[in-house]
Amino acid sequence: xxxxxxxxxxxxxxxxxxxxxGTLALNDVSLQIRxxxxxxxxxxxxxxxSTLGKVIAGxxxxxRGTVAIDGSPVDRWNPGLAQQRGISMIxxxxxxxxxxxxxxxxxxxxxxxxxxxxxxxxxxxFAELEAEVGFGLDPKAKVSELRIADQQKVxxxxxxxxxxxxxxxxxxxxxxxxxxxxxxxxxxLQLRDRGCGIIYVSHFLDSVMRVADHVTVMRDGxxxxxxxxxxxxxxxxxxxxxGRELEQAYPERPTxxxxxxxxxxxxxxxxxxxxxxDMSFDVRPGEIVGLLGLVGSGRTECLRxxxxxxxxxxxxxxxxxxxxxxxxxxxxxxxxxxFVSEDRHKDGLVLQRSxxxxxxxxxxxxxxxxxxxxxxxxxxxALGFATALEVxxxxxxLPVGWFSGGNQQKALLGKALAAKPKLxxxxxxxxxxxxxAKRTIYELIVRIAEEGIGVLLISSxxxxxxxxxxxxxxxxxxxxIGEIVPSETSVEDVLFSLFNVVPKGASAA
Length: 509
Known about the structure:
Elements: E1 9-20, E2 23-34, E3 38-42, H1 49-56, E4 64-69, E5 72-73, H2 79-84, E6 87-90, H3 102-106, E7 113-114, E8 117-118, H4 122-133, H5 148-160, E9 166-170, H6 178-193, E10 197-201, H7 205-211, E11 214-219, E12 222-228, H8 234-242, E13 265-271, E14 279-283, E15 288-293, H9 299-307, E16 314-319, E17 322-323, H10 329-335, E18 337-340, H11 344-347, H12 355-360, E19 368-369, E20 372-373, H13 375-388, H14 405-418, E21 423-427, H15 435-450, E22 454-458, H16 462-468, E23 471-476, E24 479-484, H17 491-498
Parallel strand pairs: 3-10, 3-11, 6-9, 9-10, 15-22, 15-23, 18-21, 21-22
Antiparallel strand pairs: 1-2, 1-4, 4-5, 7-8, 11-12, 13-14, 13-16, 16-17, 19-20, 23-24
Helix pairs in contact: 13-14
């Protein structure tokens, strides 16, 4: 681990306070950020870690306290001034221009100009940056055509293209595979060794322990611990984050439904023009069924077609005893088929609207008479879901965009549940969610299954499906290639199947 010099402080905060309305998001925070150091901010969703990063990057201004850069207090602070001082932020909410190419996004605003015209050397500059990082992105591809993980990489490259000496990374690994996460960790270490400071906001504690030199723990807007990383363990971090020891990670799996129960959802030989070639599976009422596959295997594309977002080319889908081909999302919601998308900003939430309005959005018809919404009923239901899901801060009238990513995810789950689904599709329901909130979501999944609601679960964290699902289907290259009972199967066997690898000592079929 790097040991920064005592005179290497880039940013120093003294008694910083930040409010959003009546909510105190940061309370009397003082700390230093140094060159040549990976400084991790950890805490539950809503603890203030992202807000702290945004104050440092100039996105938010402190209401009280002092922000000093290179030893000099700043009277005013914004992202432009921060960039001039070498401070850049990669936000959890991606800020890319969809219709521009990867290279254009990376160098947007820092193009080389001659007589006012941008010189056409973006590809050369991109190649130099790509050779250093090795993300494997096509510079000519439109950002709108990239999956979330690759869009995250574009954000990282854009920060590096500005020669930042301090990079604030807000949950940069939330959409990355294990391999991509390791690449990012290596990049952080390379930047650190060159003298760059890194603020790493993350809920992946294993990753934090691998790369961090210093760790600051936030809880309820306050800094509860800020120490060298070698002085903590993952267990002590969790205890500091929660203010208590974490209970068992996964709740007990609910009782499986009778295998003779007719399926609520039946999918047979489904094919789409989005990469699904031949997928078949079914889900019974009260059953948790997982789709296990690698990124790009076709899991999400299949469920988007089932829900009615994308068209089906071939195959049969039946929901609740009815032929379901050709249905649209509004038909699905009306019939009791819910969908929580992996991209909550693009497909799930209206960030400028309140938590109450977002939770109520998919079920307005049930709370309206003659086109007039019964607002008292709407507030009651939204508050009930927000309370049950432990949304923080507990103010349902605040814009949902003001909340942390994990609390936005809880609001999205509340929106789906408010529509009273018979079957709920969950695509990466714990993405960007901390360890405490994950437990809340796991308990929710178990509870809705116990109530007789079917659950179809996708997660890149294979352990989640292995610990929660009654059954799971293996998905590869747009096809279902097998079915397993997670309680009787090891994660290693699943990975061997997905990667088409024969374990040592076993004979090939």
